[in-house]
Automatic annotation (TrEMBL):
The chain crosses the membrane at residues 57-77, 83-101. The keyword Coiled coil applies. Keywords: Coiled coil, Membrane, Transmembrane, Transmembrane helix. This is Uncharacterized protein. It comes from the Bacteria. Residues 172-206 form a coiled coil.
């Protein structure tokens, strides 16, 4: 329903009341939140289609295990430090092999996935653009505050009569941010004072027993 509102461009006034009213502002916040959620989900869907994953673990493990066994079989004779050296070299060699195989697998797999899901990816990107355009077109919330936590706070503040306008919501948010910053600074100062007091106690203790 909200998505259809965003796409419809011929009935803006009837679909979105003025944000000067509490109900209109709540509706616009709800719309913005819905669009953001949809945008995030679309991005995840696109990423899931193009994420190759890691190379098959057991295949890599078997290959590197055989390499390690063969290497140690021919190089096991010698002193302890030589065996340790061989062991470290083998681990490093196996790591390099794993890294190269994994990167190559991911690159080839990603290209294959892009080819297989080309139509789906194109369609989902078009849907993503529609959602983004809807946000820019219809949302009255400044882009700075396009964050689900912030939008939920705005909605809650209006519902709980802590604010009646968008400006009041923003001012309340910024005031709380400043207050939290001050609290953090006070905690840091208190921590420094505690450390100084501990150092002074330690100095007095040492002076007393010297």
């Amino acid at each position: 329903m909200m998505k259809n509102k965003a796409i419809c461009g011929n009935c803006k006034k009837s679909l979105f009341p003025s944000i000067k009213t509490r109900s209109g502002l709540l509706e616009n916040i709800d719309f913005t939140s819905s669009c953001l959620i949809e945008y995030i989900n679309k991005e995840k869907e696109i990423k899931s289609l193009t994420t190759p994953g890691n190379a098959p673990f057991f295949t890599l493990l078997n290959v590197t295990s055989y390499i390690a066994i063969v290497y140690f079989f021919f190089n096991f004779h010698g002193k302890k430090y030589e065996i340790v050296t061989y062991f470290i070299i083998t681990i490093f060699f196996n790591f390099v092999v794993l890294f190269i195989i994994d990167k190559t697998y991911k690159h080839l797999r990603e290209k294959k996935l892009l080819k297989i899901h080309a139509k789906d990816i194109k369609r989902k990107r078009e849907e993503l653009n529609i959602v983004a355009n809807s946000l820019h077109l219809w949302s009255k919330i400044p882009q700075t505050y396009w964050n689900l936590n912030i939008l939920n706070k705005f909605y809650s503040d209006i519902n709980n009569h802590r604010a009646d306008t968008l400006k009041e919501c923003v001012n309340l948010l910024e005031a709380e941010k400043q207050l939290n910053d001050r609290i953090i600074e006070i905690k840091k100062v208190n921590q420094k004072l505690d450390n100084i007091n501990k150092e002074l106690k330690h100095i007095r203790y040492n002076q007393y027993f010297d």
